[in-house]
Amino acid sequence: MSSDQWNPYFLDRSPVFEPLHRVGQHLNQLEQWPTLDQLNHLLSIQKPSIQTHTHLTLRLVPQAASIQLFEQRYEPRTYLCGELQTRTHNWHDLFNALVWITFPHSKAQLNTLHYHALKIAEKQRQSNRGRLRDAITLLDESGVLVTSSHENLTRLLKNFEWKTLFWENRSDLLQHMKFFLFGHSLYEKALSPYVGMTGKGLIFDVEPSFYQQDLVSQITSLDDKLLRLLSTKSITSTDLTPIPLLGYPDWSSDNANAAYYDNSSYFRPRSNKQP
């Protein structure tokens, strides 16, 4: 699929897009790329309204042609003005907007963390991002929220025992573990999935009853859980575990065969250096 080609049925391409169904379904009647006005209308009909942590209602604006001041940079402008710079005819930015609508509290907290980290770096004249910004950038771009109500499945995932997790425990996995894509860059990659597509996972323990809830309730619960985590813990990249996404049942037609999981270049074993 071409990177600049509009497809109103993108949600149907893979189960990967399930978290975006509620909001994305408003776009499936469009024959052309949505305009900023159309996307802002989609924002405006959300109840409650999507806001930053500075209590500003989020709205999409064109990307700035040039940036001279700190306040004009991407994250500061979102935080201080409620203006999310968004390119049209661009999957990456479209998915970012859709994730904002789907996980509004977590995205607002990430924006807050980015802003304050950038403010400190600006004051101290630091050029590197630092551990916190490295981690939240990975989460923002490539994050996967993993829910598990089964201790053994969690252990298998943390130990990188991929074939045992995805194949030998397939039935239990479908009942007790679920992946929710969060990173907007991952959604873009999922338009043309490839072996090697990997996310950065955060694992949340849930009760079995979680899986009896409807999708909207599950996502609302996850948004709250991620918000609490980001509000109380300074995460680092070591908190994020690699997730070979195409191993999840039915996320690739090829994974209906046990031999699919023998590809150790994709389903990599845990190294001794990893915590």
Task: Provide structural commentary.
This protein is an alpha/beta fold and 275 residues long. It folds into two domains: 33-127, no CATH class; 138-262, no CATH class. Helices cover 41% and strands 11% of the residues. The chain contains eleven helices and six strands. The strands form two sheets. The protein has a four-stranded mixed beta sheet, with helices on both faces. The protein is globular and about 55 Å long. The mean pLDDT is 94.
User: Helix- and strand-based class?
Assistant: alpha/beta
Described by the principal axes of the CA atoms, the overall outline is: globular
SSE order: HHEHEHHHEHHHEHEHE
Helix content: 40-55%
Number of strands: 6
Q: What does the largest sheet look like?
A: 4 strands, mixed
Poorly predicted residue ranges: none
Total helix count? 11
Total number of domains: 2
**CA-to-CA gap between the ends?**
38 Å
Strand content: 5-15%
* Integer-rounded radius of gyration: 19 Å
Q: For the residues shown, what is the average pLDDT?
A: 94
- Biggest sheet, strands in spatial order? 4-3-5-6
